[in-house]
Design a protein that fits this description.
Blueprint lengths: L8 H7 L4 H5 L2 E6 L2 E7 L13 H18 L7 E11 L7 E11 L3 E10 L5 E12 L4
Antiparallel strand pairs: 1-2, 2-4, 3-6, 4-5, 5-6
């Protein structure tokens, strides 16, 4: 599946306005064939009561990056997508700074897509999480 020509950084970032990606301040910083990079500036409200980054904050970043990457790689004629499975392995944490995830297309089919994302702390390049999701491609009903 090729990168759609009608999708760019501004269009993807605008999709998040007024919704969870906008509320979290998620920002697409790069899009390429089979790949999308997104960043998140850690805010105090994204931390768990233990003072470390809440797992849901990491998943919001990785899942949104994979979702936006899916949008950018939908087959011609497809309407949308929905996540049907996700998994995340947490390897570390952070309390401040900026996170970046790079979503990479593993399988870009006509009915499903599988994306992997690695979430890193930009300050030290440390990997905080490995994420994988399966997206179901949604087609118009007949």
């Amino acid at each position: 599946m090729k990168l759609r020509r009608d999708v760019d950084l501004d269009a993807l970032n605008a999709r998040g306005s007024g919704r969870l990606p906008g509320w979290f301040g998620l920002k697409v910083v790069r899009i390429d064939e089979r790949e999308l990079a997104m960043q998140l500036a850690i805010q105090p409200q994204m931390l768990a009561p233990n003072g470390f980054l809440h797992a849901a904050s990491v998943i919001a970043l990785a899942d949104t990056a994979c979702g936006f990457a899916t949008i950018a790689h939908l087959p011609d004629g497809a309407e949308n997508f929905t996540t049907i499975e996700l998994k995340c392995n947490f390897l570390g944490t952070a309390t401040e700074g900026t996170l970046e995830t790079v979503a990479r297309g593993v399988h870009l089919g006509r009915t499903t897509q599988v994306w992997d994302a690695e979430v890193c702390d930009l300050a030290n390049g440390r990997t905080l999480a490995l994420f994988r999701c399966t997206q179901m491609v949604l087609w118009p009903r007949r």
